[in-house]
Here is the input.
Amino acid sequence: MKWITREHVKVDRVACPWLIKKFVDRDAEFIFAPADKVMAEAKRLDAIPYDVKDVELGRHGKECSFEAILKKYKLTDNPALVLLGRIVNGADTDNTLYHQAEGPGLQAVAEGFRHLGYKDDHALNAAEWIVYDALYAYCGEVVKRGKAEPSKRYCPPMWNCTEPGP
Here is the structure.
């Protein structure tokens, strides 16, 4: 399938293709178009639009597009992906829905990638997906240790945390 979104990707428009390719459509082809041309190009190319206004796989209330994809493709039974969705949400929105501590860090990393001079959105996605691979592994460990609830704090052993969680 072809999937289409706005060009000049940021957090959610990198996280969504990662999620789609890893868990929804291994043969996915991604197209990045000017915002005002996405819907026309989606129709012309028979592509699925995501992370654009007023589409099923877009923002709904305070939920980000990554979360819409999790729901649509029934991936919410994977607690590590749900936690990753909360982190993506925290990086891509005002972070008031989950108050996810990792969100601002992901936002900073994603913004840094945008300033490394990649030639286009495809190259930026290819480079940045390793971040999502690592975050997914982190989320898996957090879930395994029973620390995925926002009220609980995950502290990797090497940090030697002594303060209580938020």
